[in-house]
Structure formats: C-alpha cells, structure tokens
Automatic annotation (TrEMBL):
Domain of life, source organism: Bacteria
UniProt keyword list: Signal
Signal peptide range in chain numbering: 1-20
Entry keyword annotation includes Signal: yes
Identification of the protein by name: Lipid A deacylase LpxR family protein
Organism encoding this protein: Echinicola strongylocentroti
Organism lineage: Bacteria, Pseudomonadati, Bacteroidota, Cytophagia, Cytophagales
C-alpha cells in the first residue's frame, strides 16, 4: 500500500469520526452503522450564518442534490436565529429512518432554533352533542395561546338541556362548564387545533337526568375540515358516581 493510499484512508477515517461527533441527529449504533455502510456520506451542504456559526448537512447524492436541498432549507435557515455563535452544528439527512428524514430534521431545526411569535386565538365554538339520549346544543367562548407544536387554553361553555315537557311548558336548563384545553398537531410546528383534549367542570347544576352534583367532562376532539370537528368523551356526574358517553360536532 503506497503512501498516498494511506493518507487517503487516514483522512476518510478522521472525517468519519468528525461527522459522528458533530451530527446532532445520530442514530442508535446498529442503525447508524448500517446507514453508513449502505448510504455513505458523499456530499455536504454548508450554511454560514451572520453570527459566525456554521450549519452542515451530510447526505448521499443518490438521495438528494445540493441544489434542491439548498432551495428547501434556505428559508428555514434564514428564520432560525438561535444557533449558538461560533459553533458548527451538523445534521445527517437520509430517508431510511424517521430521525434523519428531511421532514424530521426541518421540524427539529424549526422547533429548537427557530424564532416563533406566540399567538392568541379567540373563538366562539358552537355545536350539538348527543348526551344520554338527548340532543344538547352548546355555545361558548374559547381563548388559546399558540406555541410551536401545541397550544393551551381555556373555554367557558353552556350546554343547553331541554327536559321533557310538563303541562305543555318548555323548560330550558343552562349548564355552564369551565374547561381547560390542550391542542396539538403531530409532526408539525404549526398548530391549528388538529387534536384537542378538553377537561371541564360544571359550575352550576340544575338537578336533572343529565347533570347532578359534582360533574366532570372529558372530551377528545378531532378536526375533519377547516371549521368542523367531531368529538367524543365521557361525563362523570352525580358526585362522580354516574358515567355516560357523549358524542358531538363543533364548528370553529
């Protein structure tokens, strides 16, 4: 083996060690070794930031091209202003594993290094539930604080119950709930309340077939279109001794 080959091998080994140390999204050992064998790093895309930091993306040129990656990643890098000064941060790109996929790496950078403006969302949810054999309209007011990947908030809602007519009279019972809510979007940093968990506590109680004494309600809500949600949950009433399911739809 001549001197040139030895120098080349030493250089490649040194570079491989450097990559392994720098890469932020390293895989478990067995997966990493398989990836390095089957889809070895052939190219590097480098971004130089104003704060003297560097962002490196290692990839195999049979999966990605430098030009396409640059076009995709440039807008993200421009708004990712929290990379530490004078440091180099590296990521491995490979489609074989979720952690190294382009989507996962982009989400990781956006969540960890991007600047996000928190938003406050206000809404007036309106809907109809099927509660223990009765249709119960609901209207309320909701406020959410949007953060990267999730939002938290509270809502006050009025579940209206129409008991059976007595002597031809229609009775209307308002049941006010105070609710805590948590919403999230799996795999996304932009929240549009794709999925929501709501836990409510009954503030006032008109003893009836539906609500009596201490009452809690737990709801899971899922968005099916821009302004339409379906939901399902359980009500615990009569001082938490009686349980029954509730199904419904919500708008906004």
């Amino acid at each position: 083996m001549n001197k040139a080959n030895i120098i080349t091998i030493i250089f490649m080994l040194t570079a491989a060690c450097s990559w392994a140390q720098e890469v932020e999204n390293t895989l478990p050992k067995n997966h990493q070794q398989w990836l390095d064998r089957q889809w070895a790093i052939t190219d590097t895309l480098q971004f130089n930031l104003p704060n003297e930091s560097k962002i490196l993306f290692y990839f195999n040129n049979t999966e990605f091209s430098a030009d396409s990656l640059k076009a995709i990643l440039t807008p993200l890098i421009k708004r990712s202003t929290r990379f530490p000064e004078f440091e180099t941060t590296a990521f491995r790109l490979a489609s074989n594993f979720q952690k190294t996929s382009l989507t996962a790496v982009k989400n990781n950078i956006d969540r960890k290094y991007g600047r996000h403006i928190e938003s406050i969302e206000l809404g007036i949810p309106v809907g109809l539930d099927f509660t223990r054999g009765n249709f119960t309209p609901e209207v309320g007011f909701r406020a959410h604080l949007g953060l990267p990947g999730y939002s938290i908030g509270a809502a006050i809602t009025n579940t209206v119950y129409f008991p059976q007519k007595i002597e031809g009279k229609i009775d209307v019972m308002s049941n006010w709930f105070i609710n805590g809510e948590f919403s999230w979007n799996k795999g996304s940093n932009i929240v549009n309340n794709e999925q929501t968990i709501q836990i409510g506590y009954l503030l006032n109680s008109h003893p009836s077939e539906l609500f009596k004494g201490t009452t809690l309600r737990v709801i899971y809500r899922h968005r099916i279109s821009d302004h339409l949600y379906i939901q399902a949950g359980v009500v615990a009433t009569d001082d938490l001794n009686t349980y029954y399911p509730v199904l419904g739809v919500r708008f906004w």
